[in-house]
Specification:
GIY-YIG domain-containing protein; 8 helices; 11 strands; four-stranded antiparallel sheet; alpha+beta; 26% helix; 282 residues
């Protein structure tokens, strides 16, 4: 009888070995972050950070809600979150704390943020990841999407009653005013760059206007074809009056405010990683 060698899976003295380096890195990152205390999400805390890349964790009260990364500057990225949260209803920066780790620039190729996301998702944590919190401008093609009820912009919509910062009394044209708002508002405003806006003048006498009041004045000054639409997380201004948007809370048309009722995505609608449904129109 001829003896046959046992396969590796049956052997008692030799077998294959697989080292999951990425899992080990994710575990170590999570362990090091867990050793840190948390600081308020405020200018005072952020100003103490070094201008270095890294990963960070955000907490809403005592709940761990988000993992993020900064490829160049942790302070810059955290200030973006601070500004964003300051312009929302139902939440304030005082509700938020953070901790962070600096990482070497060449470490970014290993996607430390994704390693942490994988680690904490398995534990049922970080609900703000993949729910729209980290989004910037989603683009025109997403303006008509309905949001899931758990989307960040649905939970904490933009605050239109907040005073506008940096208003200057005097005459301006609408295009210059919109450019200024793009810098000062704590949420994005997107608009069509039109000569009509550049030639339309607006006189500002009250520099303590709310965003709501200012949008009413802008829509009154613009021609009847223009519409300002306040969506869940940002504002758009186009010559599409009257057009309905799924997630709109207010429309500004000819100086008047029309209140909308945002429609949420249903369970059978396809949704993307950002928590929005497939566009329903254009």
């Amino acid at each position: 009888m001829t003896a046959t060698a046992e396969g590796p899976e049956e052997s008692t003295f030799h077998r294959g070995f697989t080292l999951s380096i990425t899992k080990a890195l994710g575990d170590q990152l999570a362990a090091d972050l867990a050793k840190l205390t948390r600081a308020p999400l405020s200018d005072v805390s952020i100003n103490q950070l070094l201008q270095r890349p890294g990963v960070y964790q955000l907490y809403l009260h005592d709940d761990f809600v988000y993992v993020g990364k900064a490829e160049k500057s942790l302070p810059m990225r955290l200030r973006q979150h601070l500004k964003k949260i300051s312009g929302r209803r139902g939440i304030t920066p005082n509700d938020m704390t953070f901790s962070c780790l600096y990482v070497a620039e060449d470490f970014s190729a290993l996607a430390p943020e994704q390693l942490l996301i994988n680690y904490h998702k398995d534990l049922g944590e970080i609900p703000w990841n993949n729910n729209g919190f980290g989004n910037r401008d989603p683009g025109r093609q997403r303006d008509h999407t309905a949001l899931k009820p758990t989307h960040f912009d649905a939970l904490y919509p933009i605050d239109l009653d907040r005073p506008v910062e940096g208003l200057v009394a005097g005459e301006t044209n609408l295009l210059d005013l919109l450019k200024s708002l793009k810098t000062t508002l704590p949420y994005n405003i997107r608009y069509a760059k039109s000569g009509d806006l550049e030639s339309t003048k607006l006189v500002i006498t009250d520099v303590e206007l709310s965003t709501d009041d200012l949008f009413k004045s802008v829509s009154a000054a613009a021609s009847g074809g223009w519409q300002i639409t306040a969506l869940g997380g940002y504002v758009v201004m186009y010559e599409d009056n009257p057009t309905e948007y799924a997630s709109a809370s207010r429309y500004y048309r000819g100086g008047e405010v029309v209140h909308g009722v945002p429609r949420f995505a249903t369970e059978d609608e396809g949704t993307g990683d950002d928590g929005s449904s497939t566009p329903t129109g254009s």
